[in-house]
Structures are given as structure tokens and as C-alpha cells.
Design a protein that fits this description.
elongated, Heat Shock Protein 90, 5-stranded mixed β-sheet, 5-stranded antiparallel β-sheet
């Protein structure tokens, strides 16, 4: 721009124009020809220096962005974009180098919480703090897996050791049954019932530990759901009037035959034991199956009162029973659903439970499709 002392033309339009002392500067534009103006009021002392004379300092430019009065923002914007671009090129690999392992550790930790202890949290080749954290988490997972496997083997060994004395106890009770008098018959029956309860508990512990320990050496096979369901109902002596099969007779899934049959049998026993809800129903249990992409969903549905929502996450824990069911007559030792969960997970599937509306309870199984 250039300084100009020429008089402003009448066509000058401006935002603020007041050469009075103390007023802010103004910006404006004049037409014919087009000029861009910048004015700044300045106090100038008079000759005797007794007062100040208001003077207006003007700067004028032919173009809005042609001078430093109105600098163009485009170069600054381009420079800012280039700085952001090169910053991203510089920082992105570093950010990925940091956040990638953290994301993998987060996913592995989530699986660890779900019970999958064979997790590799991070590459052990890293020498920084993230590598040290990952190595510590890997060691923790291996130690947890070792402790858990030892606990399972200990439980299995204890159950095996109890089988022989229990068998001898029950044989002795069977021999004594024909030798006791009627005056102690009721006491004898209570002892025999307790022996049967202990035997069932030992059998359930064995089933649970076998499912937990066999997960690494399983050979999955293609199973026809109709054959397995009918076989389980026959072995459990469930009459055809008490259950209903609702699935394609040709539906197949991949699982271990023994483990899947054991899980299905436990679910049917639970549904028939607790699923009546005190009401008579034409069909007490429904077995529903459907194909969902590469998976097969099997649901066992009863018509009972269901389970409190707060308890749904706990019912698959070993030895867990609802408070209302803790009595001798109800039977069971809190291992039925734990056996279901361990058996299905050993086959590479998952299991869940949900309440139905207005009443009823459903346990779902997801397994690979054959």
C-alpha cells in the first residue's frame, strides 16, 4: 500500500470514521476508482505545545489482498494444512506403534475375563514399558491357567478317589437292607438317600472336571440334532408328551457327542424340575433349533417363573444355586449348568440364559454348523 494525504471522496463507505482524538481506527472502501482505506487518528501537538491537534493518518491500497493492510489468508491456510499433513505423517506411525499393542492387550484382557486364559497380550520382542507390561500380563495368564488346571485336576482326582469308597458304602447298604428290622427302617432309608446324594455329587464333579480337562484333545464330529435330542430323551426316560422338537430334522452341528449329550440332558432335567411354575402345561419343554449363518442355535424353553435378572450371570458358576432352591428336596448340587457351560465351551461354542415374557425361561446354545 501507499500513504496518501488526498482528501476522501464523498463516495467513501467505511465502518467507523471519526478523526477525533481517542476514537479507534476505521476501515473503508471507496468507489470510482475502487480503493481500500485504513485510517488511524493520531494526536499531534501544536507549535506552542499547549494542546493536541487531531490528525488522521490514512493508508490506501488498490486491492484488498495486495498489501500488508489486508493480507491474504490463503498462504497461511495452505501453510497450516501442510503443517497438519506432515505432522500426521510424522506422528501416525508412532501413535499406531503405541495404540496397537494397547488395543490388543485390551481385547486379550476381555477374553481373559471371559475365562479364556490362553492369551498372548503383546509381542515379547518389545523392550519398552508396553513390552514389559505385556510380558507381565502373559506371565500372569500362564500362572492363572496353571493354577486353574491344577485345581481342576485336584477336583477330578478327589472325585475319582471317592468313587471306590462310595461304591463299597452303597453295596454295604444294599446288603444291610435285608437284615435290618422295621424299627430302624426309616433311619436306614435316610442314610441310603444321603449316600445316593453323595454319589450324584461325585458323578457331577467328574462330569464337570472331564469337560474342563478334555477341551484340548476333543475331536469334533458332525451330529444330527434330531438323533441326539431323541437319544437324550430316551436315556432320561422323558415321555414324548412332555417335550416338543421344533427344528429342521436335517439340522446338523459340530460338537463332541458325549459332551453335547451331557449338556442337553442337564438342561432337560433342569427344565422339567423347575420349569413347571406350578401350572399344568400340555408341553413342558421345547427344544428349538435353527441355523444362523455358520452357527447353529439350540434353545431349551420351559414355562416356569424364570430366574431373577440379577442372578442370570451367576447361574453358570460351579456350585451356585438360587437361595430359594437351597433345600434337600429340590435336589441338585449347583453343578448342572456349570457342566453345560464347560461342555459347550469345550466344543467351541457358547451358552447363555434369558427370561421370557410374560413367563418362561430359555437357555441357548451356539455351536458351529456342520
Amino acid at each position: 500500500g501507499r500513504l496518501s494525504g488526498e482528501r476522501l471522496r464523498p463516495s467513501l463507505s467505511h465502518e467507523r470514521f471519526s478523526p477525533a482524538f481517542g476514537q479507534p481506527f476505521f476501515r473503508g472502501r471507496s468507489r470510482n476508482p475502487t480503493r481500500y482505506w485504513l485510517g488511524l487518528p493520531l494526536p499531534v501537538p501544536n507549535q506552542p505545545r499547549t494542546a493536541y491537534v487531531p490528525v488522521l493518518l490514512l493508508a490506501v491500497a488498490d486491492s484488498l489482498f495486495a498489501s500488508s493492510l489486508y493480507p491474504s489468508p490463503l498462504p497461511w491456510l495452505a501453510a497450516a494444512l501442510l503443517i497438519v499433513f506432515f505432522s500426521l505423517l510424522w506422528w501416525w506411525p508412532m501413535v499406531r506403534h503405541l495404540t496397537g499393542p494397547l488395543k490388543r492387550m485390551s481385547q486379550a484382557t476381555s477374553k481373559l475375563v471371559e475365562g479364556s486364559l490362553k492369551q498372548e497380550f503383546v509381542d515379547t520382542g518389545r523392550r519398552d514399558e508396553i513390552g514389559q507390561l505385556g510380558s507381565a500380563l502373559n506371565d500372569m495368564a500362564r500362572r492363572l491357567e496353571g493354577h486353574l488346571q491344577g485345581q481342576k485336576r485336584f477336583l477330578s482326582d478327589i472325585a475319582h478317589e471317592l468313587c471306590s469308597p462310595l461304591a463299597r458304602l452303597r453295596m454295604g447298604l444294599a446288603i444291610l437292607e435285608n437284615k435290618i428290622g422295621p424299627e430302624v427302617c426309616s433311619d436306614f432309608l435316610e442314610v441310603a438317600e444321603e449316600a445316593d446324594n453323595i454319589a450324584r455329587l461325585v458323578d457331577e464333579i467328574l462330569d464337570f472336571s472331564r469337560a474342563e480337562l478334555r477341551s484340548e484333545n476333543l475331536q469334533l464330529e458332525d451330529l444330527l440334532l434330531l438323533e441326539v435330542a431323541e437319544g437324550v430323551c430316551r436315556s432320561e426316560k422323558i415321555s414324548s408328551e412332555r417335550f416338543q422338537l421344533r427344528f429342521d430334522p436335517k439340522l446338523k452341528l459340530r460338537a463332541d457327542s458325549e459332551l453335547f449329550s451331557r449338556a442337553l440332558a442337564n438342561l432337560l432335567r433342569n427344565a422339567l424340575r423347575y420349569g413347571s411354575g406350578g401350572r399344568a402345561a400340555a408341553v413342558e419343554v421345547e427344544i428349538v433349533g435353527r441355523s444362523c449363518g455358520e452357527k447353529v442355535m439350540v434353545e431349551i424353553i420351559d414355562h416356569g417363573t424364570g430366574v431373577p435378572e440379577a442372578e442370570l450371570e451367576n447361574i453358570f458358576a460351579p456350585f451356585y444355586r438360587l437361595q430359594a432352591d437351597r433345600n434337600r428336596r429340590s435336589g441338585g448340587n449347583g453343578l448342572g449348568l456349570a457342566i453345560v457351560k464347560s461342555s459347550i465351551e469345550a466344543c467351541g461354542g457358547r451358552v447363555w440364559a434369558r427370561n421370557l415374557q410374560p413367563s418362561g425361561f430359555c437357555v441357548g446354545i451356539e455351536l458351529p454348523k456342520a
